[in-house]
Amino acid sequence: GDVITFYSKDPTIRGLPNTHRITDIRIENGNFVFITKGDANAISDAYEVDSSSIIGVYQKNLITLGKAGRIFQSRSFIFILLVVPAVLLFVFEIINLAKTAKNVEKEKIEGKEADNDGATKESEGTGTEEGKNESD
Question: Which residue in 64, 104, 107, 136 has the fewest CB atoms around it within 10 Å?
């Protein structure tokens, strides 16, 4: 519906201008009566607006901003904005963890082989030295 600015009958803001969207129009005693609702509110206003209380009607329509606002408030957008990156981050961390575990395992295997090669060379070297000592 259209957006209007009006003097509200709401006691908390009585006498001050209020701008809300028209959600329903009725005719009572030959006068228009408007039911309004703030865009950020979940329910319609408790107080009706008489046509004599209207200060102005919003004329310019910023379609792009309105559509963007509705998109940002949608569950799909929130899902895409929060859940998808979280899942991607989780998947990439699992992949990274698997690669790290594989590298650690590879280093352990290479370390054992290096230890075995070193031990073999030492025993060969010691045996050779001992052999030389015995033959001398």
Answer: 136
Q: 61, 89, 110 — which closes off a domain?
A: 61
Residue 33 lies in a domain: yes
Q: Find the distance separating the first CA and the last CA of the chain, reported in whole Å.
A: 111
How far does Cα 50 stand from its chain's mean position?
A: 42
pLDDT in tens, 72-82: 777 888 888 88
Between the CA atoms of 40, 44, 49 and 54, what dihedral angle is there, to the nearest 10 degrees?
Answer: 20
Percent of the chain with pLDDT over 90: 36
**What is the domain count for the chain?**
2
> For the chain, give me the number of helices (H) and strands (E)?
3, 5
Burial class (CB in 10 A: 0-12, 13-18, 19+), 135: exposed
Pairwise CA distance, residues 131 & 105, whole Å: 38
Distances (CA, A) of 132 to 7, 119, 129: 112, 20, 5
Q: Which residues face 17 on adjacent strands?
A: 7
Q: How confident is the model at residue 127 (pLDDT cuts 50, 70, 90)?
A: low
